[in-house]
Amino acid sequence: MEKKVYVYLTDAGIMKAVENPNTAMEFKGENSDIILADIECKFGYPVVNGEQIIVYSPTLMKLEATGEKIDDIPALAELYKKCSK
Q1: In the chain, what are the domain boundaries?
Q2: Are 9 and 45 in contact (CB under 8 A)?
Q3: Is the pLDDT of residue 3 over 90?
Q4: I need a surface site. Which of 6, 10, 31, 77 has the fewest CB within 10 A?
């Protein structure tokens, strides 16, 4: 179920999604805004079709850190761009 979550970029440029605004404030990168979004998240990552997605950039997304690049998900790419200052 989707709910309002806080989306931000870490200093390393990885997009995170959390339910707690204090967590977002504490861990957001210097060049990141915090965006309120209606998406599902689990363990700090956005979830699409039941899969956690690691978003490194608008054009680099993976299911696992060591996994292969997956096709870009336009909604996540747009969120990434909105977070980026």
Answers
A1: 3-83
A2: no
A3: no
A4: 31
Distance separating alpha carbons of residues 65 and 1, to the nearest angstrom = 25
Residues 6+ away with beta carbon under 8 Å from 54: 14, 45, 61, 62, 63, 64, 65
* Dihedral in degrees, nearest 10, Cα atoms 17, 20, 24, 25: 170
Which residues in 40-71 are b (16+ Cβ under 10 Å) and which e? bbeebbbebeeebbbbbebeebeeeeeeeeee
This prediction has a pTM of 0.93
- Are 84 and 7 in contact by the 8 Å Cβ rule? The answer is no
Map residue 52 onto helix, strand or coil: strand
Q: Where is 9: in which H helix or E strand?
A: strand 3-9
